[in-house]
User: Which sequence fits this backbone?
């Protein structure tokens, strides 16, 4: 089983980007923790990060996975072509946000992904990725 982990704009800056909201771990640190969890779950993960919506659309269209964990960053709030690609993929999606988007600026409260995702995890920092991976792996196993 393979799960695609997508990170959107500015998440490549983790570790130096507003540590009060995002912590001090780099994206590479978070990916290592996800890989460790994936090994424990006997799941393969593939990582993809881009600051460009079109690149994320193309990666989703290429799929090659059974599910998607996505932190779309700011694209969460307006990335309609990304949303369409996620819908067209017909894959189960878990949306992750390191900060609690519902406790931040008003424009961050709306997610264009939420209604097409099987779940949303927000505000749990890097641990949200691990919870998302565990949930999605369990769900995929139940479906087979």
Assistant:
């Amino acid at each position: 089983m393979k799960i695609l982990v997508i990170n959107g704009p500015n998440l490549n800056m983790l570790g130096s980007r507003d540590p009060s909201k995002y912590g001090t771990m780099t994206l590479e640190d978070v990916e290592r923790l996800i890989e460790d969890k994936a090994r424990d779950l006997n799941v393969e993960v593939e990582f993809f990060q881009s600051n460009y919506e079109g690149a994320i659309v193309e990666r989703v269209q290429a799929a090659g996975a059974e599910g998607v964990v996505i932190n779309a960053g700011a694209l969460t709030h307006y990335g309609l072509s990304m949303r369409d690609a996620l819908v067209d993929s017909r894959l189960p999606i878990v949306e992750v946000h390191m900060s609690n988007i519902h406790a931040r600026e008003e424009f961050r409260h709306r997610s264009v992904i939420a209604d097409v995702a099987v779940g949303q995890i927000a505000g749990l920092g890097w641990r949200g990725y691990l919870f998302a991976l565990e949930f999605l792996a369990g769900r995929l196993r139940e479906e087979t």
